[in-house]
């Protein structure tokens, strides 16, 4: 009887060991950051500042700030070079990420227009997840320095053709003085990058 109890105890210990020792590792969450424009395509350009530079700088900061081993940040454009939209989408769909955030800077003829806004696709399969992520990011990034604008729907190429939740994030208006000062400052860029990273964890 004692032998049976002892064997049973050993077997239980072995089973528990196996359960913990061979527990599958948590899958990494993969977020693709697409820095808009690049190369000969400057994007919005005003007062000596270029959208392509600001979006790339913030994208790199998001990656550098990430210390979470369960979160992988992938940059589509890691340098100042041109990329076709089809090339970006091909990379995205090969990576099969949990979310794509395409970073952009807005501009308007009305210099009073300001704030951060996001766009998502009407793609039903990813609509809810895209909207949920966009709301979280907009809520996080907006605040004292950036006015909270709308989440809209748009037929942008990356939104329509990415086989995953996707967002185009317009981080502010280069044409608005307050937004421009914030977007082009080291402090502003660090804060935006930190807030985007916090929203996707």
UniProtKB/TrEMBL annotation:
This protein's UniProt keywords: Hydrolase
Keyword hit for Hydrolase: yes
GO biological process: peptidoglycan catabolic process
Superkingdom field: Bacteria
Signal peptide: none
Keyword Repeat: no
Listed EC numbers: 3.5.1.28
Top EC class for this record: hydrolase
Name by which UniProt lists this protein: N-acetylmuramoyl-L-alanine amidase
Native source species: Flavobacterium frigoritolerans
């Amino acid at each position: 009887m004692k032998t049976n109890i002892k064997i049973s105890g050993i077997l239980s210990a072995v089973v528990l060991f196996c359960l913990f020792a061979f527990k599958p590792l948590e899958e990494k969450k993969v977020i693709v950051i697409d820095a808009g424009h690049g190369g000969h395509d400057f994007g919005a350009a005003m007062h000596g500042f270029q959208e392509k530079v600001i979006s790339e700088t913030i994208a790199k900061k998001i990656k550098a700030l990430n210390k979470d081993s369960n979160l992988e940040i992938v940059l589509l454009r890691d340098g100042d070079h041109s990329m076709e939209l089809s090339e970006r989408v091909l990379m995205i769909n090969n990576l099969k990420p949990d979310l794509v955030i395409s970073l952009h800077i807005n501009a308007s003829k009305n210099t009073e227009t300001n704030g951060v806004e996001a766009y998502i696709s009407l793609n039903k399969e990813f609509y809810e997840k895209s909207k949920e992520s966009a709301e979280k990011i907009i809520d996080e990034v907006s605040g004292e320095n950036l006015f909270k604008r709308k989440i809209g729907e748009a037929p942008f190429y990356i939104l329509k053709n990415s086989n995953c939740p996707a967002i185009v994030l317009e981080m502010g208006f280069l044409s608005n003085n307050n937004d421009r000062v914030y977007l082009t400052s080291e402090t502003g860029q660090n804060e935006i990058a930190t807030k985007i990273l916090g929203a996707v964890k």
